[in-house]
Amino acid sequence: xxxxxxxxxxxxxxxxxxxxxxxxxxxxxxxxxxxxxxxxxxxxxxxxxxxxxxxxxxxxxxxxxxxxxxxxxxxxxxxxxxxxxxxxxxxxxxxxxxxxxxxxxxxxxxxxxxxxxxxxxxxxxxxxxxxxxxxxxxxxxxxxxxxxxxxxxxxxxxxxxxxxxxxxxxxxxxxxxxxxxxxxxxxxxxxxxxxxxxxxxxxxxxxxxxxxxxxxxxxxxxxxxxxxxxxxxxxxxxxxxxxxxxxxxxxxxxxxx
Length: 257
Description:
Blueprint: E1 4-15, E2 18-29, E3 33-37, H1 44-52, E4 59-64, E5 67-68, H2 74-80, E6 82-84, H3 97-109, H4 123-135, H5 151-163, E7 169-173, H6 181-194, E8 199-203, H7 207-213, E9 216-221, E10 224-229, H8 231-235, H9 238-256
Parallel strand pairs: 3-8, 3-9, 6-7, 7-8
Antiparallel strand pairs: 1-2, 1-4, 4-5, 9-10
Helix pairs in contact: 3-4, 3-5
């Protein structure tokens, strides 16, 4: 069994009288795709925001590689090895894929430059951008203006921006939202290839994709984790069926595999 790369203990986030997350315990293993699923308002994105450092928890602890990172700001978590897709930096639509990725590499390396126009003169930044574009299948679009990319390819670039930070843990918030069938398939294939080198926490509403891709799944309802297990275990968990999947959806998943 892989070792635990991330552990959450008694993590609470409140908005006034509303408890948005109340995660008593959650473990993520190195090298797995660990999906978070649940109905709208279950607290999935709130949990990701706490893991990334964008939102401070009211109580509890987040342990990354055994170290308590609960108080670390976003940039310190990026340096520690945690990256969140497309929320590390906003895509710059008037720049090229190459330039966007070079800026992400710069954020990781701490490389300095005075003017944006000098980015591509930096050999190491350029090489990092080229290599990252290849990893996410955007080499043909390397010099294309980002604003002219399809939605699906912009999603790939958002993931590339996270990868450019060389994370050990990647937080993906609905990477397949708005993509067509082919783009969704390509994203899934990419995620499966990435887990050889990275651990992935995935929030995704495409339940078929989740059951196809995830090694383990945690189900959130009203801010709490009600079950964690493999796809087969989650499909047949009575509490999950009652609170989230429903009998018809569970039967359809069983039929479709």
